């Protein structure tokens, strides 16, 4: 019984009782938007109410100047459609009719997709309504021992496509280079606190998400919606959090390291450090832009990388501090050791008030780390290279900036340079899973015990002589345990599994 039919016979069966006051069957097509570059778009036909239905008949109609039909996708095929359920009597219409093979009614949960209708777009930009008008009248019947026609409501939808209809967003990739790195916080800073439409299906997974275009665009032409990494409709700290979570992800065949934008005409990013560092002891270097009196150093945001030999630096000891930065006190910032490149710490900072700093350069941040001397030689050389990746003004224009390098001497071995009590220090169990983590050894009273993450950020702290601590609630990762006694600090790695 797969030929097209009308349900006039069923109408006669129920004529004496009259039709139901309310629709028994409700089908809907949503409004679907697709970003520029999309060539095929599918819309679902959704069963909002579908109780004990045994026969269906309806048509779909669209504008062939905007869409060309390609196929129906049955997916889970909840109504058991077979190969004879559809035909195209005309180019802008598809007719659907079906009775299940066992002629028994089927009840579908609200929201069940009957099938998807797929189309190719015909223009760069366009739209078409998708209605239930067309070749066959819409008719449905319930299985109550006889086929009884029931009233229905069919809600039309639409397809809109092109740059004015939708934006494709990769959460965390705010500059549309198909990957996430430190430069992606800059666009967040440019429009911080700006609001627009939230994404319908909010996900921060690194996969293309369709978003409604916002009212504004960056000077690059990108729509503001690209910076809404969280999808909540506001540019805020949640977007920075998504950049951190998705850092290093890419859709490119390989991760592209941010290019060196050094320009001799610009102020110099330089490293201020002691000439001699002690292996095994934490040291702090200062990153400066210019000398604090260069009007060309006035800006809004910057991004750069510190490159070094990773065998000569304890990566887990690195931490970055923006206190006293010439850019301001309340900054968006990020610092990440890029796992896609050896010995590369990527750093960025941005204001978020849409105003340039009035300070003509100076201190950008400090970087603390523990230098290593793995060969055990008396001295070794550590080269630190500053690679600028971006320097921008509040008006989103690019400004010139230059990089620099510095060689420092690393003296002695870790064991020689640690305080004498460090030889007694041990941690058990390590790796750690649960329960108390014991800090063992014949040691003087502790001033404090700290746990730092791999970026050097403080995770937990205990003030006083704590010999057992609990890390059970921390995510599995490698941390740096820091014990402080009489102003001297010793660091040990601890692995949480």
From TrEMBL:
<dbReference type="Pfam" id="PF18962">
    <property type="entry name" value="Por_Secre_tail"/>
</dbReference>
<protein>
    <submittedName>
        <fullName>T9SS type A sorting domain-containing protein</fullName>
    </submittedName>
</protein>
<dbReference type="GO" id="GO:0030246">
    <property type="term" value="F:carbohydrate binding"/>
</dbReference>
<dbReference type="InterPro" id="IPR018247">
    <property type="entry name" value="EF_Hand_1_Ca_BS"/>
</dbReference>
<keyword id="KW-0732">Signal</keyword>
<feature type="domain" description="Secretion system C-terminal sorting">
    <location>
        <begin position="427"/>
        <end position="495"/>
    </location>
</feature>
<dbReference type="InterPro" id="IPR026444">
    <property type="entry name" value="Secre_tail"/>
</dbReference>
<dbReference type="InterPro" id="IPR008965">
    <property type="entry name" value="CBM2/CBM3_carb-bd_dom_sf"/>
</dbReference>
<feature type="signal peptide">
    <location>
        <begin position="1"/>
        <end position="21"/>
    </location>
</feature>
